[in-house]
Design brief:
Blueprint: E1 11-12, H1 14-21, H2 25-33, E2 40-42, E3 54-58, H3 59-68
Antiparallel strand pairs: 1-3, 2-3
Length: 72
């Protein structure tokens, strides 16, 4: 690997997906709700956790999903 190459992390959070791929947070929510986009849900560690878990997107699966769903 040359010094000009950057390593992209595999797992993206909601903000990172919005920034790198251009999916707004509301679009992501609708796609997750209708189970159209691949994602993983990390469950909250306790019932009192207000966050209710975190969503992560696998960059490999997102790239594959985009290829499979492109308009021709």
């Amino acid at each position: 690997m040359t010094t000009n190459q950057t390593v992209k992390k595999r797992w993206l959070n909601i903000e990172e997906l919005a920034s790198e791929y251009g999916f707004s947070k509301s679009s992501q929510y609708q796609l997750r709700k209708s189970k159209q986009i691949p994602f993983s849900q990390i469950k909250a560690s306790s019932k009192t956790d207000k966050n209710n878990g975190s969503v992560r997107y696998d960059r490999v699966l997102i790239d594959k999903w985009l290829e499979e769903n492109r308009a021709v």
